[in-house]
Write a structure and sequence with these properties.
By secondary structure, the protein is α/β, with parallel strands linked by helices. It contains eight helices and seven strands, in the order E-H-H-E-H-E-H-E-H-E-E-E-H-H-H. It has a single domain, classed as Alpha-Beta Barrel (Aconitase, domain 4), CATH 3.20.19. Helix 3 links the parallel strand 2 and strand 3.
């Protein structure tokens, strides 16, 4: 998993409340178990017209936001059914950070397992960040995970809170298996102790 330390990128405004996982990646794309190739299907029902052409009104189809790495979204992002394909599609498109006032629990947890920072801010902070994001190609934000700050294009800065364990997972780029392997010496020592103390097990 790629480490997340500092990210400077264009932020796309998506001020919609209750963006659910079916909006992020519709059900017809869930047949694959591959983590790649889903970026083209991200928000497909909003990105594309019925004939398959791009909807020019959707933010990620606009020239200024085609390379966006950050989404600034409305409340309760990632609600709905549990599907890890949602963060897979975001990551495959190039999104490394989603900023909202709240996230659905399962989506929130899945983001950390896939190297995406789901960043929770206050409604007042979200309004400021949406204002920044609406500047088009000048909508560049810098997310510093170590310092726990987001800096806007005018130099304004906000602070965010994050669980220390989750923070470390992203900083080191650890998935669940890699995180467990960090404790391999302790696990091996325990297993050796148990084998000598209880050889019948």
């Amino acid at each position: 998993m790629e480490k997340f330390t500092t990210l400077t990128g264009v932020a796309a405004p998506l001020p919609i409340i209750n963006i659910d996982t079916d909006m992020i990646i519709p059900k017809q794309y869930l047949k694959t178990i591959k983590r790649t190739g889903l970026g083209t299907a991200l928000f497909s029902e909003m990105r594309y017209n019925e004939d398959g052409t791009e909807n020019p009104d959707f933010v990620l189809n606009q020239p200024a936001y085609r390379q966006a790495q950050i989404i600034v979204a409305g409340d309760n992002f990632g609600c709905g059914s549990s599907r890890e394909h949602a963060p897979w599609a975001l990551l495959d498109f190039g999104i490394r950070c989603v900023i909202s006032t709240s996230f659905a629990d399962i989506f929130y947890n899945n983001c950390f397992k896939n190297g995406i920072l789901p960043l929770v801010v206050s409604p007042e902070q979200l309004k400021l960040l949406l204002d920044d994001a609406e500047r088009g190609s000048n909508a560049t934000l810098t997310v510093d995970l170590e310092a726990q700050t987001v800096r806007g294009p005018d130099g304004g800065e906000i602070h965010f809170d994050i669980d220390p364990t989750r923070k470390q997972i992203l900083l080191e780029g650890l998935d669940d298996i890699a995180g467990t392997l960090k404790s391999d010496p302790a696990i091996s020592a325990f297993e050796g102790q148990m084998a000598s103390q209880r050889p019948w097990l």
